[in-house]
Amino acid sequence: MAGKKMTVEDAKSVVEKFVEETSDAVKAAAKVVEAKVEEVKAEAAAKAEVTEAAEATEEKETEKKKPGRKPGSKNKAAAKTAKKEATTPEIFIQFGAAEASVQNAVEMIKAQYVEQGHRASSIKSLKVYLKPEDNAAYYVINEKVAGKVDLF
């Protein structure tokens, strides 16, 4: 048809063929796009489920935390001090007719340690061994210094 004149009928036929081919191509592209849209919707739904699960977990963790407290707050020291004061028992030793307080024995041990030239603040550990039959409390301070004080 290169050198010939095209009739209207021939032109219509060519255009119709072109439109049909284009229409088929558009339909195929639409199917590909629809498939991709469904794939993206599925991915979005999966991401939404993961996000919801993460938010639910975060809410549970938030509910577990005490309101108004921050990690590492200085309220712990006050709580420990109050707890120590409330739970410190007063202990007594009785042997025959004699009676001694363990707290008094500890105070005498600390006083004796200071009299030996040490500082009371240097005491890191104190082990006290009460032996009523000897009328004594034996002690070891900081795993280094040992001694004895009278109980009664």
Describe this structure in words.
This protein is an alpha+beta fold. The protein folds into two domains: 1-66; 90-150, no CATH class. It is 55% helix and 17% strand. It contains three helices and five strands; from the N terminus they run ααββαβββ. It has helices at 8-64, 75-87, 102-115; strands spanning 92-95, 98-101, 126-131, 136-141, 145-150. The strands form two sheets. A three-stranded antiparallel β-sheet has the order 3-4-5, covered by helices on one side. Strands 1-2 form a two-stranded antiparallel ribbon. A hairpin with a 4-residue loop joins β3 and β4. The longest helix is centred in the N-terminal third of the chain and has 57 residues, at 8-64. It is rod-shaped, with a radius of gyration of 46 Å. The chain starts with 7 loop residues before the first helix and ends with a strand.
